[in-house]
Structures are given as structure tokens and as C-alpha cells.
Amino acid sequence: MFERFTKDARDVVQGAVEYAEGARAQTVDAEHLLLALLDREGSRASFALSALGAGERKGAVRRALAEARRRAGLSQAETDALAGLGIDVSEIVARVEEAHGVGAMSGGRKGKRWWSGHRGFSKGAKGVLEQALRVAVARRDRHIGDEHILLALTVRPGVPAEVLADHGVTHESLLRVLGEGTDEACA
């Protein structure tokens, strides 16, 4: 599949691997793909993010992703659902961090020995890349670009889609900015 990726898309995947390594994560996650997309300049995805105002709010997007990571990767919707059951995620995070240090639920392994070899892709990240392929095929595009990865992130449930939507980047808004019609393959 990667032979069909444009240079921009390959750079996003490589950037995601670097983010995972920097975070000392066991796998490359969908969140890492979004972080790498935020770094892009001069590509279709960076154009779309800028046109939707997310270009100026990259710091806010990064902070929202970090906050979700502190909640062990729970989306705000999941946190709200647990609150409806009487479970206060903020209180749980506070108690865990009090006992084990800030960021203890984020999966970080600071201060511990860590294997720095090849990192695999999580099920979520693989799903995003597979969805990007489906988006490209549905549009009859020969190659998968970084805009296909961005579109895929907006249709897959989870923290990246939620954070993007909170910052005005939805699947529908991306389609408008990219000058394209509806996309049945992504729904």
C-alpha cells in the first residue's frame, strides 16, 4: 500500500513514527498521524487545515491531544459517558497522578529502559491508513496524499476526529475546502 503514497503522505507516516518514538510509545497511533499532519507545510492537508482556521490553532489542537492522553486516551464523549455513570475521570486521573506522577495514565515510560527499535502501528492507525486508501480509491485518485489521511482521521471515531471537530475541521468542511463533493466511501 505504501508504494501508492505521495511524498507528503509518506512524510506524514514518517513524522508519526518520530512522534511515537519521541513519546516513547509502544505503537504509532492515530494521534501521532494527526500530530505529523499539523507539521506539514505546502501540502493539500496543510492548505485545508489553514483554510479552516486550524493552522493558527495548532497549539490548541496539540494541547487537546495531550489532555486526552492524560485521560488514558479517552475521548471527551467517553469521559462524558462515564460521568453519566457516576465515574469522574478527572478525579481518577488526579489520584493516579498523585500516586504515580503526572502523565502516569498517558502510557509514557519516562525514566525506564525502553526498546527503541521498530514500532508497529496500532489498530486505530492502521484503520486510518486503510480508510485513506478507501478515500483515494473512491475519488479515483491514483495516489494516497496527506489530504486522504486527514479525511480518514475525520471519519474514524476517536480522539483525533473529536479534537479536529472541536477546532472546526470536520469531514464535510474538509470536502468543501478541498473543492470536492460528497464522499460516500467515507461515510
Automatic annotation (TrEMBL):
PROSITE patterns: CLP_R. It comes from Streptomyces pactum. Residues 2-184 form the Clp R domain. This is Peptidase. The keyword Repeat applies. The keyword Repeat applies. It comes from the Bacteria. InterPro entries: Clp_N_dom_sf (IPR036628), Clp_R_N (IPR004176). SUPFAM superfamilies: Double Clp-N motif. Keywords: Repeat.
